[in-house]
Amino acid sequence: MVKLRVSVGGSYTDLAIVNCNDELHPIEFDAPEFKGRAVIRIKDFVGITNDGSEPIHNSDYFKGHNRRFSMQVEGRFKREWLGEDVYFGTDFDRSVELPQGFETMLKIARYIDPVVRTSLTKDGKPWILSPLVSSINTMAAWRPQDANLPSPPLTPRHSTEMAQALNMSESSSMWGFLGKLKKGNRGSVASLNSNTSHGIYGSQPNSANNSTDHLDAAHHNHHRYTNGSSHVGEHSSLSSSTTSSDWARGSSMASSTDHLRQNGASTVPTTEAIFDDSDMPLGQWRSHVEEDTTFFIPKKPSMTTPQRRKHFQTEEARKQFVFKTDLVHGFEFFSPHMDFNTFDIRMGLSMNIRKYLRGQPVRYTCRTLNGDTVFWAVQFELVD
């Protein structure tokens, strides 16, 4: 009988097996460009553990949420990176067989998310990637010395708006393990050329050369669960010492940021500017991440997930954003349709994707577009 094995690490080869659903003991990893830790949640998990112990079958996280897995990563970048340079998605070491109807999915995907890029050549290493800041389900940031959970937004949202975002998150359809499609867009293939969408934070880009679907629906605005940890479920208001203006001053764009933006190029600092990670604490592990853009976009009210994604769909916005070395960044990606215990995609009808992968695992990677730098990787594989 095959069982699921999940591994996490800072590269494709330096991976360690994770005890899924163990929210009190995140697995830590240290990559050349990112120091972090992660918790992987799998609903109804019966797979392999790293110490041979009985698997933790479930998590309270799944109560009240229509999700089958969750990947939560927290960590610090060792030098500053532009939002334009950090991507997230799936990639493979060898070619994969594309299922019937894949081209139609791509057309829908290009309409919904024009910033997603793909490379699906039969003789190469296929990938489907999107800028992390415009694709990930949940994103937040905080200082490592902050002990409390992320503060609620400085600008309160109406309860109806929060309820709408929650409903969008849980009811949206998914394109398998690759990302989300909004239900309302499934019939819009005929209007692919009319892909300009206006919102309160600007207009959506008109095109992207190689794009496919990746994550398009709102993340829940707040969820809580308890697992025995003293800080889980705590929620404090923002103190005067951690206002957005303080963040703007404390995380001001230094000379290395100017180097990043020199001539509008997407570059990184030279090796002399690499952050010294010998004293790089991550602070207290936070058992869940809530969407909160207050600290890394201090001049705007805290955005909802759809607003943040739309804001970063423009190349200009991504080039203006910098992942700061003095902040811990938190990310979460989840899906209601992919059952990694069996590799079944359940979307009304059930389809097993294992045969299309040609013996390869499903791997989610945070990396640069050219693949020269990997920040972290999460690998799902079925083994005997």
Automatic annotation (TrEMBL):
- Which spans does this entry mark as compositional bias, Polar residues? 195-212, 253-270
Question: Where does the Domain of unknown function at the cortex domain lie?
Answer: 3-172, 252-383
Low complexity compositional bias, start-end: 229-252
Write down the InterPro entries for this protein, in alphabetical order. Answer: Duc1
Q: Where is this region: Disordered?
A: 195-275
| Pfam families per record | Duc1
| Protein name as it appears in the record | Domain of unknown function at the cortex 1 domain-containing protein
Tell me the organism. Entomortierella parvispora
